[in-house]
Amino acid sequence: MNAIPQTAPSSSSSPATGSGPADRHWTVAEVEALYAMPLMDLLFQAQQVHRAHFDANEIQRSTLISVKTGGCSEDCGYCSQSARNKTELEREKLMAVDDVVAAARIAKEKGASRFCMGAAWRGPKDKDLEPVLEMIREVKALGMQTCVTLGMLREGQAEKLAEAGLDYYNHNLDTDAEFYGQVITTHTQQDRLDTIGEVRKVGINVCSGGIIGMGESRRNRAALIVQLANMTPPPESVPINNLVAIPGTPMAAAKGVDNFEFVRTIAAARITMPSSFVRLSAGREAMSEEMQALCFLAGANSMFYGDKLLTTGNPDVDRDEALFAKLGLRPI
Ligand code: SAM
Ligand code: DTB
Ligand code: SF4
Hints:
The protein has 332 residues and is of the alpha/beta class. The protein has helices at residues 7-10, 28-35, 39-53, 97-110, 126-141, 157-163, 177-180, 189-201, 218-229, 259-272, 289-297, 317-327; strands spanning 58-68, 114-119, 145-149, 168-170, 205-207, 210-212, 237-242, 277-280, 302-304, 330-331. The termini are far apart. Residues 1-19 have low confidence and may be disordered. Iron/sulfur cluster is lined by residues 72, 74, 76, 79, 81-82, 120, 122, 151.
């Protein structure tokens, strides 16, 4: 399998960057070939692509908040918030706008540039959308970028979000179309693609990625990257989550992936989506500083910043600030 190193990915692209035209179409075989490269070659290529498009010492930081927690109708096998999973999570109804804005103000003071508000919904009801629109307007007024992740959108809802000034909508493909049904049965991957299409249509930036370590094969991982990279255009933000195995979910005993496989996934995302922010997402709390540095070297240039993700932990801000200082990274 080591016969293909640099050639496959750069066949129709610039050898210096491995990138190529904006409408480059990737095949699963090409991305599998990236995965199969010697790690040092892969990291070198990822760095070349990264440096041709970004300042490699800058990392964008978003703070997450769960504005509506638990009790979700969907059966996503990894999620603490599904009503069908027997987790210890306490349900919480939609937060008051003022409390959300107060949390955003703190996140800004601590150095986050974007505030991402998540709700455990299959999708928002129109009456639920109104307070969320107010949250978006008020967080934006603080001078922060805004992101929401609310599930599937119905007709007209994306327009309302755009009118409120929303910068990013997060809606992950989560896993390869072929593996999707083994993780989630209450909606299809096509449903997710439809919502992403709605978001695109109204000009909101797309944040879409997936989860690694749910028992999928390397081919599934490569196919997920291909699906994201072949979107026209690819998502502006691509979160790569390392599964947080949550007790009480069907994924509680998932074995996860080897660290280097995760790093290879980041590199594959970077090389195939040269202009996108690749986000080192869930799972960072369990990663050493060296592992995180390797992810940045592979081309990750954004992350979640703040002591909590949605329902699980994240490194605390002091630890992240110390890591940035050690690595000479600058937040943007
Ligand atoms: N309900 C909305 C949805 O599904 O899009 C928004 C919230 S949902 C929790 C957002 C994303 O968090 C999921 O798409 C998934 O990628 C990620 N996520 C959830 N639980 C996770 C876990 N245990 N480990 C890693 N990522 C997880
Ligand atoms: C994304 O891709 N990961 C974030 C954000 N987008 C919404 C969520 C991670 C959730 C991890 C598990 C939890 O805290 O519940
Ligand atoms: Fe969790 Fe979102 Fe799935 Fe609901 S739709 S179970 S919140 S990932």
